[in-house]
Amino acid sequence: MEMAANNKTYDVHHPLNPMAIAVACAILGATASASAQTAQTAHDGPAVQQVEVTGIRASKQKSLEKKRNNDTMSEVVTAEDVGKMPDKNVADALQKLPGVNTLAGSGGQGGYDENDRVSMRGTSPSLSLTTINGHSVATADWDASDQLAGGAGSSGSGAARSVSFLLLPSEIVSQVIVHKSAEADQVEGGVAGAVDIITRRPLDGKKPFSAEASVQGVYSDLAGKTNPQLAAFLNWTNANRTAGVMLQVFDQKRNVRRDSQQITWGRIGAATNAGRANGGALAGTPFVSEVIESLFQQQRKRTGGLLGAEFKVTDDFTINADIFRSKLDASYANNRFVMRPTNSIAGGVVPTNVTVANGAVTSAQFDNTGAATGTQLESQVNPSAASRTGYENVDFKWRVNDALRVTGRGGSTKAEGDTYLYWNYAFLPNTATGYVYNGPNDPVTVLLPNGAAAANLTSNPGNSGADQSYSLQHSEDREHYGQLDAEYSFESGFVNSVKVGVRGSDHKRTGTRPLKAGLPENAAQNGQVSAASLPVIGWGGAQFPSDFGSNLGATGATGPYISPDAVVAWSQANLNANDAFNKPVAGVFTVKEKVKSGYVMARFGSDRWRGNAGVRLVRTETSVTTNTGLPCGVPTATNGITYGSAAQATACAGFVPAGGTLTTGSRFGNFYTLTTDSSYTKALPSMNLVYDATKDLVLRTAAARVMSRPDYSALGASISGFAYNPAAIPVSTASGGNAKLGPVLANNYNLGVEWYFQPRSLLSAQLFYIDFDALVGSGTSTQQLLNTAVPASLGGPQVVSTVVSSPVMTTGRSKGIEFGYEQPVWGGFGIQANYTYVDAKEASGLPMLGASRNSYTAGGFYENDKFSARLVYSWRGAARTGLYGLSQNYAAASGTVAASLNYSLTEAITLTFEGLNLNNPTLRYYNAADANIPFAATTALHSSGRQYYFGARFKY
């Protein structure tokens, strides 16, 4: 049998020969139309002997066909019907592919119950590019910690380049292609790989009019609530199939509850009463310095749609336009009961009933009488948390003649994230506390020997005077882009075609914090009023639910929390909203990037060989505007300096570099704003080579120079995240960005084999090696900074020596092997499994962010004409998430179980059931042992329960 060359495609059952279809499928950004035409030709061609299949089997068949015919190392997911993919967003589907991992949270806030980010081959999510139909898509987050600050902060949170898949429901998907090797005509940005989400096109429709709908309810067992989930699809084409209009809409609501415990360790100071007692026996001993029990309650509502119009103007010219919008309203209240032994010790309390084991205080009790404030209530309320994204895109395909094809696209994409965060602390004085440390993998048991009475809220003046605030935040990510490509095909010879193209984009990412309201300015204009002058916040009667922490283990006692309504009312009535006085230094930045690129690429093939080779040239011009705090002009009662005065400006004038603009008058300190410009030009060669050894066996190899750019917060984050803990080493810490970072650069090598040993079956293996000669890592420096986290009881805020974590350029490598297997086995049953081993390290020897050494997915399915079922277990090993304080933090190994059931009542109506997180997972994070705490210690435990989706799909 003659084997297919580059200008031929394969059905996974039998080889095909349509040349034009193969060329169309090979173009980067191939539309869902091209994919559908390829599959239809496979079914309709007279030489093909096969039975047409539907449902799960049809999806797998199309995915394998696309994977086999791609020139790149790739994975493919296909969705047959709206809502039929057993996943709730695109990341859920990608989690089941070899070499792909997902994160249920984007950074420092920890994980929830829905996949949010996607990473590939042991690298950070920011090193994987996500596009829709081959073009850029802007991204945003709803969580305050992920909108602005971070990048080098705790757990790597912040304004990342990685796309939030929370805004991309699975209903929009026709096909998802994961490219693990690069081609010259692909947009740069994916060092580890690229995810291209292919949406439906109007002229893909097989009938003049079609309609589909999904009506579901979702029950979240921990939240104990049921909400509606709706999606619909309408498609119309004219009789000649030269014009079509498509509309997709979705409206999906659900409630989230997450029970958490966060744990911090410190050392008992030698100068404290506790450190001096009993001959200093406890001085320098590690102890649990803080335990936070968090009740997070949220309502998420994802709404939006996709509107598309496609016109076949002539047989040779087609134009398509589409508009996409998605919004996630994510209002929440995070109520926290805080036990803080470090405050007890700082207040002079000597612990009793102390147990020391393995060099650490594993249990103790604290009387907390008098001024000691070892217990507090803390509430974070965000009634306007939201994120949204969208794009407008126009693209065309023009067959100039039999040899020349021209394609192009242009458009814009924009995303925004919003926060209106109320934050209030209230102490519970005269509340005895204690704890029991249960081991490195378990929660700490909180002890309240005499209970926690809400009446204690009113027992001290200024009880609500910790750090109340409400703050506005806004992030905006937008890009305008344009692209033009031309491909000339040759009738004979080893080179089948030559493709050239140019692309330009103008990208801007901004973060703004116009206000963080706090205690009003005092009359002398050199500080804030005493908290004792304000009324005490009302309790509101709220108590932690009786089943709090039931999935976490022995968390111990809880108590009251301040109701969200009380927090909002108190803040609006008592806090000062003066813009100048409450203008934050941190979280404000602008990153502008202008990119121009061009490429040339040849496709080649002869007999059993096919592939492509080319080079992409990329010019990037970057402008970063950010704030830097100054250790000068701090008002005191004796130096005569007041906020916003000429004396304050004079005191800081000598600290401002050329080109900087000084701002004074803020209670967060004085600062200057400076813009840093840079540029670089990089050549990115690539090659993909495929050898069809037999009709069933495919060998692949690929090599490419690849490039990404640093996270926006790594470039633009002001120094922020201040912490002050007298029991820790170092005492004062912070984090910030580095505007002078260059691009991430690596060489990406791949070698793979694929055996299509029977219909709809595959056994594959891929070796990969990504050699980073420029990678963003973590570094530190010591600076004299105004630390606003120093408590008033210790003379704060004040200028202190602070260790600042910031990103620096380093090197590293990620290498490993992936195995994939899927096969229908008997009587409608089938199995699918994959395993990935990754060895990914930075030059320091630390694992790369997000790298799990081992991960796997195993699942099975059953399908007949009426009924289908699928069960999948996905597991990933421990992965480094970044810095927690100055310690390396890791997400512990975890796994999830998902299932779906479908029963067809008629050809038009299908009953559905889906379950996510059926094993009720607990997400655990821990710090590695270091000089401060010489053992691995759990830092957080999160549980969000199970989710059950049930309803029906309708199809016309």
Please tell me about this protein's structure.
Helices cover 9% and strands 51% of the residues. It has ten helices and 44 strands. α1 packs antiparallel against α2. The chain is globular, with a radius of gyration of 29 Å. The N terminus is likely disordered.
Task: List the main descriptive attributes of the protein structure presented here.
Maltoporin, Chain A; 5-stranded mixed β-sheet; 956 residues; globular; mainly beta
What is the average per-residue confidence, as pLDDT, rounded to a whole number?
86
* Helix content, binned percent: under 10%
Domain count? 1
What is the top-level CATH class?
Answer: Mainly Beta
CATH superfamily: TonB-dependent receptor, beta-barrel domain
Please tell me the CATH architecture by its name: Beta Barrel
DSSP summary: helix tally: 10
Beta-strand content bin:
over 45%
Distance between the termini: 42 Å
Basic shape:
globular
Indicate the radius of gyration in whole angstroms: 29 Å
Largest sheet: 31 strands, mixed
Please mark out the parts with pLDDT under 50 across 5 or more consecutive residues, or reply none: 1-53, 150-157
Structural class: mainly beta
How many strand elements? 44
Instruction: From the 3D structure, determine the CATH topology.
Output: Maltoporin, Chain A
